[in-house]
Design brief:
heterodimer; A: mainly beta; 6 helices; 45 strands; globular
Chain lengths: 523, 174
């Protein structure tokens, strides 16, 4: 246990004294010479301290006294309190429905091929430097370049692209390649703590914080807004956008232009045609969406802004008081009070979302009309269209059983939880990640794959007949392609990508400090 | 590190309440209620109505079961174990609801952590990590006492605490 990749994830275990003596010594030896890991340990301590401080705070005296009075009143008449249980249960159920519906769908994985990248032989692509932070390794979308960060001898950090170290900074974040793979940008931190974006020879304006705040999706867990110290490249790679935070507020920076300040900004995204960005903003108590130069209607809250695939329209959730509704452009769509994120069909003509309330069960709405289902479900979320827009699959849950409903019919197989489904290119088959106990499985049609601790991302072959994905178990990663299984690697850092004839998958792996291209014949 | 301190319980009070002394029972309720309520508040992710109901049921169960308490020195872990059981009973058959309230985390950039932030973050953790962090840091229990509350081994509890801390760190780093 000598490098940050192995030490950093175990620092909490070290802190709670869970490591065997030998491992503990090894961690301590590493900490003695590693500033980043020492910083992480300091962070863990500060979290513990904050928790202990929180222990000193309690519920309000009024609540406490009210509760105590209730207990004392209940002592001689024990049955009174039982009458309250149904009300409490109803309150829980309402909150549950509301929040569950707010979860957003991950973008369905699309078939990926790498024919043009030409890595169809097994070869060593690069050797990572000795002091390279292996957790920061990123592979360019073009399949030609790699990047990450490295600790210099001067206790400074450098971004390394294809083996070439950049200028030194007090800290640097993981670089992000443009979609065409030709450029990279990253957030650097100066000795004074100020943050700025570096791309090539250009350094951006300094801010207190540089970040992108977006809803992040997981195939099986709840979606969360995360502030990442990163940038967001335009789909055509011509520019990147980010949020810059100062004491005045938050600015949205796109290329050389800066907009704001806003009280907060979230959900920053590029229009699919790369012409402009859109985001959810707040000034004082007014919440609204901004699309290009246009400011939308003012609400008490906005969320889940999404563009149609052709970029001509947007949809989002808006809150008026406690009631959420769906906005399609400037049009208000039907809502029962709680709504899930809106989803456009691939051609942009249809819009689907789930709505419900305390009194009414969850319903799927497509183009403003209730979509009938013959499968009852207490909870619905994340509708997904097939590529031709004619079919819809949706996640569903009844009690502890989670399953997928396709075209109104529930699939027979049930799990502890199911991820967002997606269709094969021809729309005939649905695939998703499901969990049973602590294991994840890839489900394709009626086939259930092998158990792994983690499965990601599932991609259909161009002919739609097989899927490929990464599986993780015992800290190692493998690639599954149809029925074929690769050997184990330290990490699969890119792919799997299908060949255009669907017969092979290619991927890039890290073994120790070496990067290799690998391929697998699909079975 | 574990600096949480609570006023010591009067063991004589427990003894008297166990023997049927109504005044001692009332005083015990006053002395213990705030810990039970606060613990329930975390179990219910800060929902005061649900915590009030749960704490009330817990207190009544505690008083009913008091004659069965073997070691008055272990009163707090014993009481929190009853609270945990009350909470589990309430959840039984409603796991979907419990999972459903895995709330969306909304963070404003540039905000500093405060106590409410931290409590909110703990509330958003899934079980069993939420209970583990609550008992360890907010209730200040030893791993031995936590074992009595949750009926899990010390190793498992340490592992849950470590995982919970990591989840908090990942959320704060992001």
């Amino acid at each position: 246990m000598t490098d940050c990749r192995t030490v950093e994830p175990r620092l909490e275990e070290y802190r709670v004294d869970l490591l065997p003596a030998e491992e503990k010594q090894s961690v301590e030896a590493h900490l003695a010479g590693c500033a980043p890991c020492s910083d992480v340990l300091a962070k863990i301590r500060s979290i513990e301290e904050a928790l202990l401080q929180a222990a000193d705070s309690g519920p309000s005296r009024e609540s406490m006294n009210a509760g105590l009075a209730r207990v004392q009143a209940a002592l001689p008449r024990k049955t009174r309190w039982k009458e309250r249980i149904p009300m409490a249960a109803a309150a829980l159920a309402l909150l549950g429905t509301f929040v569950w519906l707010l979860g957003g769908p991950p973008s369905p994985p699309t078939p990926a091929t790498q024919d043009s990248k030409g890595i169809w032989e097994e070869k060593r692509l690069a050797a990572l430097p000795e002091n390279f932070d292996a957790t920061s390794l990123v592979w360019s979308p073009s399949g030609r370049s790699w990047a990450g960060r490295i600790a210099g001898g001067d206790k400074k950090w450098h971004v390394v692209i294809d083996g070439k170290p950049g200028p030194p900074f007090a800290s640097v974040d993981v670089p992000v390649f443009s979609p065409d793979g030709k450029k990279a940008a990253y957030v650097a931190v100066d000795a004074d703590g100020k943050q700025f974006v570096v791309s090539g020879e250009t350094r951006g304006e300094k801010f207190n914080e540089v970040l992108v705040s977006r809803l992040e999706h997981s195939p099986t867990e709840q979606d969360v807004f995360r502030n990442r110290r990163t940038v967001l490249w335009a789909p055509d790679s011509h520019a990147f956008a980010y949020q810059g935070h100062t004491t005045e507020g938050t600015f949205v920076v796109v290329g050389t232009t800066k907009r704001g300040p806003y009280r907060s900004v979230r959900g920053l995204c590029w229009c699919p045609d790369s012409r402009t960005v859109a985001f959810e903003a707040q000034i004082a108590s007014d919440s609204f969406v901004v699309v290009g130069d246009r400011k939308g209607e003012i609400f008490d809250g906005v969320s889940q802004l999404t563009f149609s695939p052709d970029g001509t329209s947007v949809a989002y959730l808006a809150r008026e008081g406690a009631r959420w509704l769906v906005m399609r452009g400037e049009r208000r769509m039907p809502s029962d009070g709680s709504v899930g994120p809106p989803v456009f069909s691939p051609d942009g003509t249809s819009l689907a979302y789930v709505t419900g309330s305390e009194e009414t069960p969850n319903r799927l709405i497509i183009d403003g009309k209730y979509s009938k289902m013959d499968q009852l479900a207490s909870q619905l979320a994340d509708p997904v269209f097939s590529p031709d827009g004619k079919r819809v699959a949706i996640r569903a849950k009844n009690g502890r059983q989670a399953f997928i409903i396709v075209d109104g019919h529930g699939l027979l197989e049930t799990f502890d939880s199911v991820g967002v489904p997606f269709f094969s290119p021809d729309g005939s088959t649905v695939a998703y990640v499901a969990t049973r106990g602590s294991k994840q499985l890839a489900v394709v049609g009626s086939d259930i794959g092998e158990k792994f601790s983690k499965v990601e991302p599932i991609v259909f072959s161009p002919d739609g007949k097989t899927v490929s994905y990464r599986g993780e178990r015992f800290g190692k990663q493998v690639v599954v392609a149809g029925k074929a299984l690769s050997e184990e690697f330290d990490a699969v850092v890119a792919g799997p990508f299908y060949s255009s004839d669907s017969k092979k998958v290619s991927f890039v792996v890290r073994q120790g400090l070496e990067l290799w291209s690998k391929f697998l014949d699909v079975k | 590190m574990m600096v949480v301190s609570h006023p010591p319980l009067d063991l004589g009070l427990i003894h008297d309440a166990r023997g049927g002394n109504a005044e001692a029972r009332d005083r015990l309720v006053r002395d213990v209620y705030h810990r039970v309520f606060r613990y329930f508040l975390r179990l219910t992710r800060g929902r005061e109505d649900a915590a009030l109901d749960g704490a009330q049921e817990t207190m009544l169960r505690i008083l009913r079961a008091l004659p069965e308490l073997r070691d008055p020195q272990r009163f707090i872990p014993w009481a929190l174990r009853i609270a945990t059981n009350v909470w589990r009973d309430r959840l039984r058959g409603r796991q979907d609801v419990e999972r459903a309230v895995e709330a969306v985390v909304v963070e404003e950039p540039g905000r500093r952590l405060n106590v409410n932030d931290m409590l909110g973050r703990v509330d958003r953790l899934p079980e069993p990590y939420r209970s583990a962090l609550t008992l360890r840091y907010l209730e200040g229990l030893s791993y031995e006492a936590m074992s009595e509350v949750l009926d899990l081994s010390s190793g498992t509890l340490r592992s849950h605490v470590a995982r919970g801390l990591r989840m908090l760190r990942e959320e704060m780093e992001s």
